[in-house]
Amino acid sequence: MKRFLKIAGLTIATLVGLAIVALLLVRFVFRDAAKRALYALQRTERIELLRTAGAYASDDVPFRFVYRQDTARARAIGAYFRLDTLADPSATTWERTLATARFVARNIPHANQTVYPERPDAIGLWEYSRTVEPAFNCRLHSILMHELLLAQGIANRFVTCLPADAQDNDCHVVNIVWLPERQKWAMIDSDMQAYAVDDEGAPLSLAEMRALYLADAPIDYRRLADGQRDKMSYYRAYWAKNLYWFECWEETGYGREAGRKGSRFVALVPEGFAGFKLGQDEPLTHDEARFWAAPERLELE
């Protein structure tokens, strides 16, 4: 009898153990696999939608991107953030960009803030993250990055990347940085802590990312933080949605969204698409060559 009870106890313990293992597999392994499958399906569906978009074409819609620099503001931001210690001033533009993005990502995580900052500029945003809320959204991340890079003399824009669906209230804002050593733009995302490279490790622009999605070609997304190159399935699907059209300020500069007047947004849209939630005077262009043209020199204010 004792032997029977012992065997029964071992059997029950084994079954309980197997049930626990099964639950753990369902909770962690199979759940992650299901998520990856869902994101892969979303990516495929969104690429198909992107392929239905009209083509780009040259046009004569009047707009001109202006890149402004205020040397006094640049010195103030440089001193406040000690930018000379953040990255070697003799490093390449891309190396300084990565160092800056890692600094921002390390200190300010993503969140949808509940209180909008009173001063959405570099110093104001930093102080907000230390005294009001410790994190904020992609747009504020990109404004902070814009001014930190500009203070280092790096020409860049922050670009709103939008979906085709007017009912989709989610979009993404990132920075594009001009790399004079490579004569091209590169995307950097301090908010979601990532950037994209081609199969040779060269950083990709938003235009190149869009072209690769249309070709259903792979993109290597890399994390800004070491050891975080996994779990990018969501990010791949997310970008497939938000490369349908783009919008950014016609003039760059400090305090761009801190009450500064006298500029407007410019939108790049595929032919046959009118965008949504646009300003009355906002130019719509199909001319990707002009929208993504190399920046003119920084104009001193």
Question: Can you put this structure into words, describing what you see?
Answer:
The protein is an alpha+beta fold. It has one domain. 42% of the residues lie in helices and 14% in strands. The protein is built from nine helices and ten strands. The strands form three sheets. It has a six-stranded mixed beta sheet, covered by helices on one side. It has a two-stranded parallel sheet with strand order 1-10. Helix 1 packs parallel to helix 8 and helix 4 packs across helix 6. The chain is globular, with a radius of gyration of 23 Å. The mean pLDDT is 90.
Task: Tell me the layout of helices and strands.
Blueprint: H1 2-51, E1 68-69, H2 71-81, H3 83-86, H4 93-107, H5 122-131, H6 138-151, E2 156-162, E3 172-179, E4 184-188, E5 194-197, H7 206-214, E6 220-223, H8 233-241, E7 245-249, E8 265-268, E9 284-285, H9 288-291, E10 299-300
Parallel strand pairs: 1-10, 8-9
Antiparallel strand pairs: 2-3, 2-7, 3-4, 5-6, 7-8
